[in-house]
Amino acid sequence: MAGLFPLLPRAAKVKRTVKLAASPTKADLPMAENKQPTPDSHRTMQVVNHIRSLLESGKLQPGEKIPSEREFARSLKISRASLRTGINYLAAMGVLKVRHGVGTFVADGPAEFDKASLRIMGALHGFQPWQMFEARLLLESQMAGLAAERSNQEQHAALSEEVVEMFAAIDSPSEYLVHDILFHRIISQASGNPILAALMETITSALYEDRRKTVEHSLDLRESAEMHRAIYRAIRSGKASEARKLMEQHLHLAESAQGKERVSLPASEPGSAKSSKSADRARSTSKTRQANHPPASA
Questions:
Q1: CATH architecture of the domain covering 118-286
Q2: Which single residue of 15, 21, 37, 196 could bond 10 by disulfide (Cβ 3.0 to 4.6 Å)?
């Protein structure tokens, strides 16, 4: 199901950045679905569909800087805050590239969006935050080690750029999230295993959708930025074991931090403290079950 819940694309080259993967056609940009959207999702898709129309008409070219916030918001008749929500969504999807203090650019080729979404499956089957982190821990720790062994100078430069942007966006959680997501996507590409990278892209799509609801309640983004810098340095130095350990440490800290963010949400919101307690109970039950019935040895 394309549209409101696309699969995160592979990182694509944009103006003054490094190309990490090929990009498909402009027709792959998501379109809003015929659902009853929330005001937030409606404004987001309004921006998405406007960018799509500009690309299809040739008025906006890949690699080109988009209009200023004021001009763009006025043309869409929405607030600048609503515009930023849509821009951040497209940036996390790899369609736009936000350059701190410079502007926002269109990727050199709109990225690919899959027809399926882990987020939809999660809604149907009740996936819990701890399950997401467990999956990420298994995948990303190993991909960080592979990236340390297989990455190249271009990918090192791309990772370095995202670390710089994270430190620059410490006081802007929503912008920080975009660069956080891109950093992890670059590592998945640098692992050199397209199957692992595709699995991670699916998880990251759902991750962004959920995290952007809580990120404004972040308590210490500087600590997070420093962890990302340490992971980058381990990968650049080719220290696979260290990269794996640092990624594991980062994800455990992130799980704890994001749990605190959910506590700050209203009880009626998905992912709120009430939902978090339910997840903790489910996790405890799962661990008890595993303790009583340990798996057979390989």
A1: Up-down Bundle (1.20)
A2: 21
In this predicted structure, what is the pLDDT of residue 53?
Answer: 84
- Cα separation of 170 and 181, whole Å? 14
Spatial distance between the Cα atoms of 93 and 277, rounded to a whole number of angstroms: 30
Average pLDDT over residues 264-291: 49
State both tokens at 232: 């980058």
pTM comes to 0.58
Per-residue three-class SS string for 233-259: HHHHCCCHHHHHHHHHHHHHHHHHHHH
For helices 221-236 and 173-190, what crossing angle results, to 10°? 20
What are phi and psi for residue 40, nearest 5 degrees? Answer: -65, -45
Cα–Cα distance, 110 to 54 (Å, whole number):
12
Domain locations along the chain: 26-106, 118-286
The more confidently predicted of residues 126 and 196 is 196
19-75 confidence digits (pLDDT tens): 444 444 444 444 444 443 344 567 778 888 888 888 778 888 878 888 888 888 888
pLDDT class of 296 with cuts at 50, 70, 90? very low
Asked if 96 and 62 count as a contact pair (C-beta separation under 8 A), the reply is no
CA dihedral 40, 220, 163, 89 (to 10 degrees): 0
Neighbours of 214 (CB within 10 A): 23
Nearest to 89 by CA among 123, 59, 137, 50: 50
Angle (deg, nearest 10), helices 221-236 and 153-168: 170
CATH fold of 26-106 reads Arc Repressor Mutant, subunit A (1.10.10)
